[in-house]
């Protein structure tokens, strides 16, 4: 078996995802400055969430969860993987075109399902209009996700990881052009969505073609492989539905409070930075690696890959989680507080950031644990666990709303994340050695926690001692940059000093394929 270089894959995907997230911050800073937390901003955010909801449901969720393990094993065994991908693409196109037609026709009801609080004001008409423009994005991005899965299974990560950058570049360009020519910002953002989808699909299609995968859609038919794909995808689709219900619950709660959808969205962007960089990198790289090792019977290599993914995840999320907790308000103020985004908006957003920060390690650990199931083509068990997590989220988000308002949505999301991790961890105990963290992981995790605590104490002390530095117009950018640099030096310096990380391990992993690197 030609191994996927795990750490190199993490760094490739993580680096491009970091670039996308940085551009995403630029995008959100511009949206905040142009639109604040007003009705146009909230209408666009709901409209954009609709194709994204179904994208996660069909493409990155159910479809790719089922597709990647089958494709990876066919690729490993030389069993006409390209033919399978063509059949899958033909079936996916058929489903997505039908879905798009129905969704555009039913857009007013979809908007109400996402945000019933919009019904009595102007946000409803705006969200319906923007949603109809943006929804075709699902076709382009879902086909792009399939091609990305093909590339990732073969160990080609760069193009698929770079594609999201095009989305944020398109958004930024749309706002700059709209401002220059006097166009309304809301419709410009809505039209940017499908345009970005075409650009992303083009990028990964060309990359797949150059990598030797000439994937064009085949006529849909119920071949044995497609029946197997559907059989595995249905539980994953149901599980994806549960995840989306969790998101719907949060948005429904938030829609009852003016400005809350925007506050939670900006908070979501902040914790999504480390979650995206680390969680997406691990999910993208680990699933095909474990699938191919399972096919090859490589238990030791599978355990190594699983343990290094867990170690990598915690190293790069525990520290950011503590930072989001102790410095939420300065971070939000520096990034978003300008134009129509007020200090009151910053305070409201910061509370949500701190709560999401507490769940950050759980959200990433799910990306480490789920491939243990998906690589074995087991999507039913995670679905059952997702149902339990959904129950936790609904009870907390709805039950606490009368007492803590929109923050109940963030609390519900965080606790549901930890409930999911607990179930995935306990359920994996029956999978044997390949699903158990090794001794190196168990030695290093306590040291990572100590390193994060040292960093957190220092960051809190700086924020407490110099609060004005993070609000002064000419100084706050430099103050935040300095805080980030000091925090990173404290975190990684402590980690190296006490043996929580050794960069020699990563250099060795980059040089060799040994043990799943």
From TrEMBL:
Key word Kinase present: no
Pathway: Cell wall biogenesis; peptidoglycan biosynthesis
Membrane topology: Multi-pass membrane protein
InterPro entries linked to this entry: Lipid_II_flippase_MurJ/MviN (IPR051050), MurJ (IPR004268)
Residues spanning the membrane: 29-50, 92-113, 133-151, 158-177, 189-208, 229-250, 270-291, 312-336, 348-365, 385-404, 410-428, 448-472, 478-504
HAMAP family: MurJ_MviN
Role, per record: Involved in peptidoglycan biosynthesis. Transports lipid-linked peptidoglycan precursors from the inner to the outer leaflet of the cytoplasmic membrane.
Protein name: Probable lipid II flippase MurJ
Organismal lineage: Bacteria, Pseudomonadati, Pseudomonadota, Alphaproteobacteria, Rhodobacterales
Encoding gene per record: murJ
